[in-house]
Write a structure and sequence with these properties.
Number of domains: 2
Strand content: 5-15%
Strand order of the largest sheet: 1-2
Order of helices and strands: HHHHHEEHHHHHHHHHEE
Radius of gyration: 22 Å
Shape: globular
Helix content: 55-70%
Number of strands: 4
Number of helices: 14
CATH topology of the largest domain: Fic-like fold
Structural class: mainly alpha
């Protein structure tokens, strides 16, 4: 059964704008930022998503944990961050359409924090904001069926993944399938859905913008609850995604190193053989001499295998 929502003109306009920005990011080779920026954005994502849930650790403290340094902070907060680091590091291992993967992700994210991580709830729960009950989640006996239906919708519905990622996020929060950790899981799973749609989204810290607009985020969830469909929340989240892409484009003064270019090209060419001209067509902004230096350096580092000579020269990425 398809979750209730409408695709209106505002949503269509946002989807068109997002698609345009994705094209611009691809053209600027920003779809996989340099290593240091990827690390920085991942830290922002983790810090923001957990701060929404009350975690107190700063980006500097999370950086220290990533570098295996000791920090002074509440043990619960440290464990939340370590778990989040672990689950984001395993991003590639999860199947976005499988309940088994969803449960595994939750078991990592909430390990040591709740009694049964990775288990769907069997009891009825309410979400409290301040001193008011903001939402009564569906009864525990319905959770398994509702989550399976939601994953089936995600896999089989013809709407584009951008929209389905927002619908999933809202419906996941509405179902509230776990005793705790639903907010961070919903945001993480939307990132996973978006990454499947375009690799651009793996290192774009959408959660930072959600944190900056936290009350608007809760308001959009609440309005969708009252309206009985997720249209309002879809529009809000698409606006957040668009802003995140615009911020990424604004950072395009980043200078790619030869290592960055070689790494990025691999995601395009994969295991196919290629020539220097193929490499130059991808990086129109560099000279033939720079391309030759990039390729020579990659061969010396044992990243590329070179065959042939002069005009017949071809390169191939070495199998990992």
């Amino acid at each position: 059964m398809k979750p209730p929502y409408d695709i209106n003109s505002a949503i269509l306009q946002l989807v068109a704008s997002i698609s345009e920005k994705i094209g611009a990011i691809n053209a600027s080779h920003l779809y996989k930022p340099p290593t240091e920026l990827r690390k920085k954005n991942r830290i922002k994502t983790i810090q923001s998503s957990l701060e929404i849930e009350g975690n107190t650790l700063t980006e500097e403290q999370i950086t220290a944990l990533l570098d295996n340094k000791r920090i002074l902070a509440p043990q619960k907060d440290i464990l939340e961050v370590k778990n989040a680091i672990e689950v984001y590091q395993q991003l590639e291992s999860f199947n976005v359409f499988e309940l088994k993967s969803l449960l595994k992700a939750h078991s990592i994210l909430m390990a040591g924090l709740i009694e049964s991580p990775g288990k769907l709830r069997a009891t009825t729960v309410g979400i409290v904001k301040g001193n008011k009950v903001a939402h009564i989640a569906p009864p525990g006996e319905m959770v398994n069926g509702l989550i399976k239906n939601l994953l089936t919708y995600l896999k089989t519905d013809n709407d584009i993944a951008l929209i389905k990622s927002c619908v999933f996020h809202y419906e996941f929060e509405f179902i509230h399938p776990f005793i705790d950790g639903n907010g961070r899981m919903g945001r993480f799973w939307q990132t996973l859905i978006l990454k499947n749609y375009s690799p651009i989204f793996e290192f774009i810290p959408i959660e930072t913008l959600i944190k900056e607009r936290q009350q608007e985020y809760y308001n959009a969830l609440s309005r969708s609850d009252k309206q009985g469909h997720s249209t309002c929340f879809i529009a809000f989240m698409l606006q957040i995604i668009l802003l995140a892409l615009e911020e990424t484009l604004a950072s395009q003064n980043i200078n790619l190193t030869s290592t960055d270019r070689i790494e990025l090209f691999k995601s395009n060419i994969k295991s196919e053989a290629f020539t220097r001209q193929d490499y130059l067509r991808n990086y129109k902004e560099i000279s033939a001499a720079t391309a030759s230096r990039d390729l020579k350096e990659a061969v010396e580092k044992n990243i590329l295998i070179k065959t042939g000579d002069k005009r017949t020269t071809k390169y191939k990425y070495k199998a990992q």
